[in-house]
Design goal:
single chain, alpha+beta, seven-stranded mixed β-sheet, two-stranded antiparallel ribbon, 4 helices, 9 strands
């Protein structure tokens, strides 16, 4: 199995510091352009999560999920299947009341198989009273048509202190 740092896959460097990411790619391939494309596609899904959360757009957010998804909210609510995730999202997201903005940054990508990746995300709510942080873990899988979708998500609020 070939093991490369994220930066070796994306830009040819080996020091793991070009973009602050130290994630490791271990998908067993040596096709660097394919690995880079997959990581870019995963990063784009996370960027869409950010955009849809900022816009409080439930339909855009839900378009990122597989039908058999599992999601655990930051407050521990477990949602099994797309219908449960959709019902919760359509109720909660439009009513979310935060002042400021939220950012999502991919912190680590680990390919479990070429079509399955664990993606660690740093989520920060920037508000007038200060920042609060979440640390989601997404299990993403590539669909038959090549799209990366959210399959499992666990969002955890980071406690201050």
């Amino acid at each position: 199995m070939t093991e490369k740092t994220f930066n070796e896959i994306t830009d040819g460097t080996a020091d793991g510091t070009a973009d602050g990411t130290t994630g490791r790619i271990t998908d067993g391939t040596t096709d660097e352009p394919t690995g880079a494309r997959e990581v870019r596609a995963i990063r784009e899904v996370v960027a869409v999560v950010e955009r849809t959360q900022r816009a409080k757009d439930p339909d855009g957010f839900l378009a990122l999920f597989r039908p058999d998804s599992l999601w655990t909210t930051a407050h521990g609510r477990v949602l099994v299947g797309f219908d449960a995730i959709a019902a919760f999202t359509r109720e909660a997201l439009p009513r979310a009341d935060w002042d400021g903005e939220v950012t999502y940054e991919v912190a680590h990508v680990q390919f479990l198989r070429p079509d399955v990746a664990a993606v660690k995300v740093r989520q920060v709510y920037h508000g007038p009273g200060g920042d609060s942080e979440g640390t989601p873990l997404y299990l993403m899988s590539r669909d038959e048509d090549g799209r990366w979708l959210l399959h499992v998500g666990q969002n955890t609020a980071v406690q201050a202190g």
